[in-house]
Amino acid sequence: MKTVVELLTDELKKAFAECGYDEQYAKVTVSNRPDLCEYQCNGAMAAAKAYKKAPFMIADDVAAKLAGSEVFEKVESVKPGFINLSLGGEFLKNYLADMAKDDKYGYSNAGKEKTVIVDYGGANAAKPLHVGHLRSAVIGESIKRIQRFAGNKVIGDVHLGDWGLQMGLIIEELRDRKPELVYFDENYKGEYPKEAPFTISELEEIYPAASAKSKEDPAFMERAHLATAKLQNGDPACTAIWNHIMAVSKADLKKNYDNLDVTFDLWKGESDAQPYIPDMIQKMIDDGIAHESQGAIVVDIQEETDTKELPPCIVRKSDGAALYATSDLATLVEREKLYSPDAYIYLADKRQELHFTQVFRTAKKAGIVPQDADMTFLGFGTMNGKDGKPFKTRSGGVMRLQYLIEDIDKAVYEKSSENRSMSEEEAKNTAKIVGLAALKYGDLSNQASKDYVFDIDRFTSFEGNTGPYILYTVVRIKSIFNKYAENGGRPEECSIDTAKNASEKKLMLSLVKFNEVFESAYKDNAPHKLCQFIYEVADAFGGFYHDTMILAETDEKKKQGYIALLGLTRNVLECCLDLLGIRTPERM
Ligand code: ARG
Q1: Which domain holds residue 37?
Q2: Is the Cβ–Cβ distance between 210 and 224 less than 8 Å?
Q3: How far does the centroid of ligand 1 lie from the alpha carbon of residue 136, in Å?
Q4: In whole angstroms, what is the distance from residue 243 CA to residue 199 CA?
Q5: Cα(43)–Cα(55) distance, rounded to whole angstroms?
């Protein structure tokens, strides 16, 4: 469906042309003065110069042409030359009725289906998930859903950090703790056990212990480096331990991501890219793209238009080791081979910007991806505590994601404990859904690139622009619906009517913006734009609900119009929440 702005612009184009003015001046926008009008056209101001006429004369001409139009309830020309527009009741009603029939509520994808890889999550195997990974998971999940809704084929990949020094550290720590294990017997020739020699809780404790030890004990660090190198060279014992680490860690990560309602199509990682590295680097050298510098192999990425100096991308260290960039480049080799995507979107902390500039430029230069490949890095800001510093636990450590979620569920549970009419079990489950909404909405309602303050009290509040407030709105609508049905009404037979009062019209005006807002959220990879929209709709619903007797309305046709409007409001809100990765409970 065309957006309302497009339809109105079409109307204005006709009028401008009929008055003898060029159509290019007919552009309509949503009003920035909603107290004066709903939409506006400022084209007469620019046209005035071209036609050497006073702008208000042009605005007057056009407004007079539009006088009889069904589309508008009111067309006003105001000095010095604005055209103020208010939508006609029938037009609005028909537009909403069409939206209600459409499974995408009026959004239609103009472009052709693209294959898009979204690289997000980015957890590091064997290390606990912390709040730093939360943003990647939450924003990435939403981006993935938005891309899918837009009609693209989307592949979400968690891209685990599973090939670094942490593996060597764990192997050596395990050797110190359990030297009797067969993995450490040099003469062992048999098969390695299928069962992992540790549980997830042990693993969670082993890594931090090993990491701390390595900082104090250079000999231990040296061993960890050696073990990492052995693993990377295919040593069977190290590989066997690595497989155990991966199995135990992945199972735990899956559980954590499940708790966040975040799902991936691919569970690949840096390790999957390793086989591609030797040929990739050799080709870069043969093609003259990469060269030697102080024993390392590097690719220059500086471009003429750069305003600052960018260091080259190191693809191999002087000791022969691969780096983070090498893994990302080799991952691109694999992704091109397996999926030949049309676009890539990466989510990571914005401090990784240089890394991604290096990787994208090198990949294009080396022909790993096409010259004009569509590659986006979405760098997100830091989640800070109320003190403005990166969020920490009370004891100053890095907050584990699991505890953060537990805290938020508890806060929601306690807030809703007054006048609770549901069973304990339902209350706990509801608190989980609402808590997660509080967390995700608190994050997504900010522009991703900005730092934001994690404030449990504010995020879990049932008032203001928060997840709980939005969910509460949806639940309220659901309950009106249920009551209507319980009293014998048939919501599915209701159809939208023309607005009866100002607050009903306001709700309608907010809803019709959906396709335009979605397009903009999609184009800019900006979930926060959906949040702004949701809040506007929820707020407009609040006004409507306050001003209108819905179920008590005695005029049956009017009542049916209300119910149909509420149905669409609920559907649009639930659709947007789903695009944010947020579920809604039945009751709250
Ligand atoms: N594992 C990385 C980290 O914890 C994030 C990975 C981001 N994705 C990528 N393809 N480099 O910082």
Answers
A1: 4-87
A2: yes
A3: 9
A4: 13
A5: 9
In this structure, are 151 and 178 located in the same domain?
Answer: no
Q: How many CB atoms lie within 10 A of CB 323?
A: 16
pLDDT digits (tens, 9 = 90+) for 102-135: 999 999 987 889 999 999 999 999 887 777 789 9
Are 440 and 544 contained in the same domain? yes
Does position 31 have pLDDT exceeding 70, yes or no? Answer: yes
- Which tens digit of pLDDT belongs to each residue from 236-274? 999 999 999 999 999 999 999 999 999 999 999 999 999
Report residue 394 CA to chain centroid gap: 29
The C-alpha atoms of residue 163 and residue 274 are separated, in whole angstroms, by 9
Cβ neighbours of residue 90 under 8 Å, at least 6 residues apart? 70, 498
Burial (0-12, 13-18, 19+ Cβ within 10 Å), 453: middle
Give the distance (Å) from ligand 1 centre to CA of residue 161: 6
Bridge partners of 554, per DSSP, are none
- Does 75 share its domain with 176? no
Q: What is the CATH number of the domain that holds 16?
A: 3.30.1360.70
310 Cα–ligand 1 center, Å = 21
Classify residue 156: in a domain, yes or no.
yes
CB of 116 within 8 A of CB of 343?
A: yes
* Whether residue 463 is found in the same domain as residue 415: yes
Q: Is residue 359 within 8 Å of 376, Cβ to Cβ?
A: no
CA–CA distance, 332 with 193 (Å, rounded to integer): 34
Query: 91: Cβ below 6 Å to ligand 1?
Result: no
Residue whose CA is closest, atom 8 of ligand 1? 122
171 and 277 together in one domain: no
Q: Other C-beta atoms within 10 Å of 236: how many?
A: 13
**Ligand 1 midpoint to CA 366 (Å):** 22
209, 238, 259 - which closes a domain: 259
The reply to whether 73 and 210 lie within a common domain is no
CB 130 within 8 A of CB 207: no
Q: Say if ligand 1 is within 6 A of residue 348 CB.
A: yes
For residues 280 and 367, state if they share a domain. Answer: yes
| Alpha-helical regions (H) of 19-130 | 43-51, 55-65, 89-101
